[in-house]
Design brief:
This protein is an alpha/beta fold. The chain is 46% helix and 14% strand. It binds one RNA strand through residues 88-90, 166-168, 232-233, 235, 239, 241, 259, 262-269, 293-297, 300, 324, 327-329, 364, 366-369, 371-373, 375-379, 408-411.
Length: 419
Amino acid sequence: MTTFRSDFLRTLSERGFVHQISDPEGLDTLFATETVTAYIGFDPTAPSLHAGGLIQIMMLHWLQATGHRPVSLMGGGTGMVGDPSFKEEARKLMTVETIEENIASIKQVFSSYLSYGDAPTGAMMINNAEWLRDLNYLEFLRDVGRHFSVNRMLSFDSVKTRLEREQSLSFLEFNYMILQAYDFVELSKRYGVRLQMGGSDQWGNIVNGIDLGHRMGTQQLYALTSPLLTTASGAKMGKSLSGAVWLNADMLSPYEFWQYWRNTEDADVERFLKLYTTLPMDEIARLADEAKGAAINEVKKILATEVTAMLHGRAAAEAAAETARKTFEEGGLSADLPTVEIPAAELEAGIGVLSVFAEKTGLVASNGEARRQIKSGGLKVNDATVTDDKAAVSARDLTPEGVVKLSFGKKKHVLLKPV
RNA sequence: GGGGGAGUGUCCCGAGCGGCAAAGGGGGCGGACUGUAAAUCCGCUGGCUACGCCUUCGUAGGUUCGAGUCCUACCUCCCCCA
């Protein structure tokens, strides 16, 4: 791998963020000589980004940390088109309201990683609805569409594989790449953006933008992609025991977020420290060095706490670490575990275990699932395995702390609290 | 416009002579082993007021004691010919 002169590229490169760069020397020179504005696009398909997108946010973070200007582009306009899924079933397009709500909700997270403002390196959040929604179709075709060769678009892997797999590709989706290319050009014209970053799957789209820029007379533009991240065993990033690893605290508590990182596979620890924390490289090297055998668990805790601290703040991260310590290392309970409140009278009367685990707390999906889990010994009340699906949980099960601890498997715990 | 295929358990792929809650994978979940890891092994993987009941095989009808399986129409997709 080349050694870069610029702080930004050197940092990204040594931390493992770089997959491809369109013109490494040129871009390096650019970063070494001026303050560069670069962007990454995010689709507002959900009210929160999840761990899979964290790597992109970290790239913006480093961009700013090394003296440049990050732009997060929200796809308020492209969201209208929707990135059609592979399945048929013309998924309902999102309404404008949903898109706007999602964007508002996603915004909160960025301020944990970037500082916004008018300073030369102040981060910006831009919505491509700004120029896409009022686009005039005919004008657009004449100004932008004429620069695209269908022959060439058909030759892109993203399109080709789709056609070869005999899966339909709607015109809508076909246009998505044009809009994204156009975004790059608009950002370049309006805000002086020079670089677009993204996951490696975005390479073709980004390069399209560069080409369009050439034809439409922008400055030289650049592309930088990050590797597609999977865990060492091949799973996609961003799935936890209970679903997606959302970044918004109201969708996934800091404790659960911490747990996700705590459970990192051994083989991923060093890589994740580089990608998802801002610990200095020599510090990471030291940690990786002492992380042999079971000692690696200590390093995983550091990883979890550092990642959580960046997102939710140091205090929340340490609270999560403490909760985990009490729960797992002392086998006790901590008031900070996820808690479900229940009317005291109801508990007094006694509630069936099935109902408690399924309806009341949602730890398992249904009564049937609860029954199956009991059969295989997966449910516990106050750390005692449930063996009878007709058993009931009542006020007698309250611990001295005044709660009932319910566990599903070894890692999922909920406290039942009478009110 | 003509001809030929396909749509299965809403995570995915994928079998299915008219008796099917539907084979088999993958994934996921639980258990054992460990270190809250990986690998490995075992079990589970429609719902319920549960020895019974209800809802599932593109949609809507029909034939049958009985249909994922047969017939009709429709929808969507793919391939070949024009």
